[in-house]
Amino acid sequence: MANDREILREIWEGKIPVHFQLSSDETDVEPEDFFLLIPRLSYFPLVTEKVRRHFLRVVSNELQDGEMWMDSNGTPLKWHYPIGVLFDLLVGSDACLPWRITVHFSKFPEEVLFRCPNKDIVEAHFMSSLKEADVLKHRGQVVSAMQKKDHNQLWLGLVNDKFDQFWAVNRRLMEPIPDQDGFKHIPVRCYAEDGTYQQKLVAPGTESGQKRTLQDLLEDFSTPVRKAVSARSHGICVPESTPLQWLSEHLSYPDNFLHLCLVYA
Fold first, then answer.
1. At what angle do helices 148-159 and 119-138 cross, to 10 degrees?
2. Ranges for the Autophagy protein ATG5 UblA domain (predicted)?
């Protein structure tokens, strides 16, 4: 378990250096760019308040109340995707660091992005995903048995980037079903190159008791015309022989989903 905890902490401490620049459409004054080291496991609205304040100093008065949104090389960034997932989808390689992101306060792309006026929206999205994951893993029994203070501790652990605070509660969600070696199903979202994702019911084992691996999952998400050949998560190309139960316990994001960016051949 000591080694397991080290893996969990290393995943938790994953950070991405980001170079924020204001869109040239937003101001006649060229402001200084802003650099920030942000957690892979978080969401952009939770970590970009400093970015917003920095650029609002030079944005015109009519844009002061505009909702901030961002793009990476022209692709709007979906705030409800974890930051690490967006990086793996849109950049993928540490050779491209720091990640260059353009900040906007106008022309919000409503056909692509959901609005996010405050952090309460992020919390509602996070808790909804967490409950969905627990339904897949434990038929919802773990989250429903928690008290409001437990939900708050999970949320505040994520917001404040506190590993021990978060995992003191989250460890309950990582316990297997009683009398079984794993979860009922593995909460997983598999992303294609265009940023869309699929979900399927994925069991951690076969009816004969064998552990299913990433290779089995890749076959599940392959089609006659497109074969899934590998998966990336947390900047890692995941070995195909890794058991799905182990992946779910160690590489899940705080919402308890495995977020896998698939490569197709």
1. 120
2. 11-105
Structural domain harbouring 204:
120-264
99-104/188-191 β-pairing = unpaired
∠ at Cα 19 (18, 21), nearest 5°? 135
Clarify whether residues 83 and 147 are in a common domain: no
Question: Which one, of 226, 256, 251, lies nearest residue 238 by Cα?
Answer: 251
Count CB-CB contacts under 10 A for residue 147.
9
Give the pLDDT score at 3: 57
Is 88 within the bounds of a domain? Answer: yes
- State pLDDT tens for residues 200-224: 999 999 988 899 999 999 999 999 9
Residue 120 has pLDDT above 70, yes or no: yes
Domain contains 125: yes
Residue 95 belongs to domain with CATH number: 3.10.20.620
pLDDT at 64 over 90: no
Amino acid found at 217: L
Q: What's the N-to-C CA distance of the chain in angstroms?
A: 37
Question: 127 with 241, same domain?
Answer: yes
Residues 49 and 149 in one domain: no
Q: What Å distances lie between residue 145 and 151, 168, 185, CA to CA? A: 11, 15, 19
pLDDT at 95: 76
Say which amino acid occupies 216.
D
Structure-token match 């495995």, residue found: 258
- Total tally of structural domains belonging to the chain: 2
SS3 34: strand
In a domain, 243, yes or no: yes
Q: Looking at the domain assignment, is residue 5 inside a domain?
A: no
The per-residue pLDDT of the chain, averaged, comes to: 95
